[in-house]
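re the bet — no i am not wrong, look at it urself. input seq straight from the record:
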Amino acid sequence: MIRYTLICEAAHSFEGWFRNSGDFEAQCGRELVVCPVCGSSDVKKALMAPAVSTSRKREAISASAAAEPAAPAQTEASGPAAAPGQTQPAALLPTDVRHREIVEALRTLRAQVIANSENVGKGFAEEARKIHYGEAEERSIYGETTLEDAEALQEEGISVLPLPELPDDKN
């Protein structure tokens, strides 16, 4: 995975993770990469320093961390400061609240997909191709497939998205 610092046309800075640089370019070309602040799809890679970790750097970081006193905890009212060149989100919530909200939104999305789609099980890739090429009735489906088959479907121009696995799904 590659982490890019991205910037939109309104100068909002944010991060994005991609499998490789080709994925970033492809997703930008399809306007799938959008600014989380303003929703702009005019997104470019920002200048970033490479993340190189050396043993000297690790030693220096651990030595400075041991020598410096702990920073005072920030209150919810003051919130964390934005890094230079980055905008601060409009609303800051404790991490556990944001996590719960995200998981709940994903749970709702997943439930809607399942409720409004047909489960085709392990034959997902085959059925998706049949629908795409007009050999089967057009409808929403979900099921199971390998990563390789999902990539092959996308290369053929067949839109597929993974259903998110949620923390409670494995309990």
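see?? The radius of gyration is 21 Å. told u. also The first strand starts at residue 2 and ends at 8. so pay up
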